[in-house]
Design a protein that fits this description.
This protein is an alpha/beta fold. It is built from eight helices and ten strands. It has an eight-stranded mixed beta sheet with strand order 1-10-8-9-7-2-5-6, with helices on both faces. Strands 3-4 form a two-stranded antiparallel ribbon. The protein starts with a strand and ends in an 11-residue tail after the last helix. Guanosine-5'-triphosphate binds next to helix 4. The site of guanosine-5'-triphosphate has 21 residues, from helix 4.
């Protein structure tokens, strides 16, 4: 089913759902556009690894948080967040085929971790490790769109761009996702999401909170933004 844009913030289960989300930071992949050297999530931004910005912004918005990465991320240890790999069987299958995995593998790892550690949570919120200025009112706004019947996937859109890795996912999709990755070799996030009831949160305002850091030039832009924002942590616009 094609995604449906939803732009209003109606009566909702927001506060209930926001408290029941497990956050999943997607920090795998190859970061080829960033070039060789330090892993992309560990690239320093304002004196800290980029992934630390994402963890700090997401942590107050979710009931628990996990980082999915296949490389050791020493810079994450001090953040006291569990770091788990993509599902090993899915990785092995991709390696046998000589194919890259992509963010869907991290989504599956997050779903399976949530099912094991928080069996009543029901939902995960995925966020890429290379988006260091995520809004602090992200889950309130996303969950403000949760209604009955609930969508299976709720993705963020700003302007013409859909943020595939920034979404709320029902963990009920874990079995289907595992099959799609292993048996179909599916890799495209939107191709999977569009099989289900997919809705979008059209983000009000500009795209600045979703600055995606893929290249050294992007990293310079992010460092400039950080300097302009000053050291004070941003405050959410809406209550939590
Ligand atoms: N867990 C996990 N995360 C991934 C994987 N591939 C990409 N990601 C994450 O998904 C987000 C978007 O990834 P991309 O920027 O499209 O890919 P990338 O591999 O990081 O970078 P490029 O090689 O330059 O395309 C980033 O936060 C990545 O860390 C993967 O195989 N596993």
């Amino acid at each position: 089913m094609a995604g449906k844009s939803v732009q209003h913030f109606g009566p909702s289960l927001g506060p209930v759902r926001a408290g029941a989300l497990v956050g999943v930071v997607l920090a795998g992949g190859e970061g080829r556009r960033m070039g060789p050297g330090v892993l992309k999530p560990l690239r320093p931004l304002g004196g800290r690894p980029m992934v630390a910005h994402v963890v700090e912004r997401l942590r107050p918005q979710v009931m628990d948080l996990v980082v999915v990465a296949n490389d050791p991320l020493p810079g994450v240890r001090s953040l006291k967040v569990p770091v788990i790999p993509d599902p090993p069987d899915v990785r092995r299958a991709a390696a046998r085929e000589g194919r890259r995995l992509g963010p869907l593998a991290g989504v599956l790892a997050g779903m399976e971790w949530a099912l094991k550690h928080h069996p009543h949570a029901g939902w995960i919120l995925t966020a890429p490790a290379d988006t260091p200025f995520l809004p602090l009112d992200l889950t309130v706004r996303l969950c403000g769109l949760m209604h009955v019947p609930e969508p299976d996937v709720l993705m963020v859109r700003h302007g013409r761009r859909r943020e595939h890795a920034l979404a709320v996912w029902s963990v009920k999709l874990a079995g289907d996702l595992r099959r799609a990755l292993l048996e179909e070799g599916l890799r495209r996030v939107d191709a999977f999401a569009e099989r289900y009831v997919l809705e979008e949160l059209v983000w009000p305002g500009g795209s600045a909170p979703f600055l995606n850091v893929n290249t050294p030039a992007d990293l310079s832009v992010a460092a400039d933004q950080l300097r302009k924002r000053g050291r004070a942590p941003a405050r959410p616009r809406s209550r939590r």
